Amino acid sequence: MKKIITFCLIVTATILFVSTSAMALPDIYEGTELYDGVFQSGTQDDGESRSGIWDFWGFWAEAGDIVDVVGYRPAGSTFDSVISLYQGTTDSKEGFLEQGDFGGMTFIEFDDDDGDNGNGYGYRDSYINDYSIETAGYYTVAVTGYSSSTVGQNYEVMVTGNTVAPEPVSSVLFVIGGTVLGFRKRFFKKKEVLAV
Q: Which helix (H) or strand (E) holds 12?
């Protein structure tokens, strides 16, 4: 029985490691995954501008989701956001293209300053509205400032309408737990005591 339990524990640990690794965003991405309606904060680092390094943010979406993406200027900031939306993720920013396929990602849409076009956001905010997700998976939002005047300025990025990423780990652990309980019941049935 110890062999069965050891085997199940090894399988569980392996599946847990593999599935969480597969679901994680690459290290070059900022902050945490973007969730529906939650702003994440970033800062335009020294030397970054529209022609320089972009910040990458990721989110999960399911086929049929209708998403909005906003690059927002918080109070007290002069950040002038520019955003690009991509299907997929990448492990590198080197040679990044703001309006074309890049590093295994498929370009979807670019925006600069549509936030003030009756969308409820302010002047110089970027806004991609009502994009219909065709394929489930991770998507990338690339954010930068329009010019070097935004260096050191804070910004916020948000996606709305996306579905939270599935958690395969929970399902796998549930199945393995059921298997272990099944083995336990099979091999450790109470022995009936016969009356003499």
A: helix 2-23
Residue 108 pLDDT more than 60? yes
DSSP H or E stretch at residue 20 = helix 2-23
Distance CA 90, CA 29 (A): 9
Handedness of CA 81, 84, 90, 94 (dihedral sign): negative
Residue of 37, 41, 83, 87 whose CA lies nearest to 62: 87
- At 191, the amino acid letter reads K
The β-bridge partners of 97 are none
Length of the chain: 196
Q: Which fold has domain 34-164?
A: Jelly Rolls (2.60.120)
The whole-angstrom separation of Cα 22 and Cα 142 is: 21
Please give the single-letter amino acid code of residue 9.
L
What is the β-pairing status of strands 154-160 and 40-43?
Answer: antiparallel
Half-sphere exposure of 164 (CA within 13 A, CB side): 6
Vertex 93, ends 49 and 91: CA angle to 5°? 150
Give the pLDDT confidence score for residue 89 in this predicted structure.
Answer: 95
